[in-house]
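A protein record in our archive is deliberately plain, so that people and models can read it alike. The record that follows is passed on verbatim for readers who wish to inspect the format.
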Amino acid sequence: MTLSLTDAKGTPLDRQRFTWRELVQKPISKLDDDAFTRVRIILMNGQEMEALRFSHACARMNGDLRLDLARVRRIEQHQATMVNWLIGADHSPLETTIAYEQVAVEVTAAVAQREPDPYLAQTYRYGLLEDFDHLYRYSAMLDRLEGKDANNITQCYSDIMPGRPTLVEHRAPEDDLRTPFDAKTADPLSKLHALTIMAAEQQTHNYYMNIGPLFTDPVARQLYAEIASIEEQHVTQYESIIDPNQTWMEQWLMHEASEVYNYYGCVQQEGNPRVKALWERMLDYELGQLHHVKQLFKKHERRDPAEILPDKLPEPITFASQRDFVRETLLAEVDYRSIGAEYSQDGEESAASNAYRDHMNSEGSPTETVAAGYRWIPGTEQAMRPSSLQ
């Protein structure tokens, strides 16, 4: 059963309050909780952080909206804290990195299969194969630095094997821009997908930029630098599929709807009762925020929010292993490249991307260095670690 955006009013803004004890709750168990509980936590932290970024940008451009943005943003800040603090200190930074890449692989794969627009679905599959390779490279680094098997984090839901090599993912900026959907005609699901994946990639980029400099191992520092650069490219790619002609109020409305959509999916699929109760609370809060912004939309744009929002939410993103789909996509599309906004199936690329990549890789590629000789085989990760990585 899907959720009606017309009937559900949620918790009023003046009742959306927190205490410090509520914000910092008991974290999940790294090993005992299902990996998809952590996937949902990371995904929703990304959605909340995107809400904060958008709100600040909007406030700098719209004086009349500043107070309302500040009121909602304060709540979003606390929601982001409550969600993100569910990741416990028993996760090493590299283990959390593995989890971030699992989010990118499994959520993007789920979105790619349900996306109604063929061009957008292709865009998600294209990015998917690059994040899939990142998971493999970081898994090699986890083995190198900590002697750990990444499957302890992914719980074997996700394959650990090369995707489109990160070495060849570096592109000139003009080859990362995609054709945006038309907000007037696009399926509501396409709009929700675009905001969801863009927010997730932005969060991943920010995490790598913050955590990378904290490593002492020189290869690890370079590895984070290289993959963070690709994550910036992914943010560029996914934000470019969003119609730039939408008004600020339209975009705010869709941001709130996207959070409602994703929290609803979390509620429907969460197996940890304590975390599910948190998702239910956050869903009620987001419905209240959406209702508030709908009233602002009517006031400032003198339009019906029904012009922008569907009456009922689409079915939520599926939180489950997408292994078969990822394997099929890898087999069929690993050699795809992009030229401008289009995709090349024969590996052809622009002169600009070739020149940019050749220079960036002229002194070697950290993602190639870290994975040299690394092959994961179940139960033999210690024996299979090459001597150069011991």
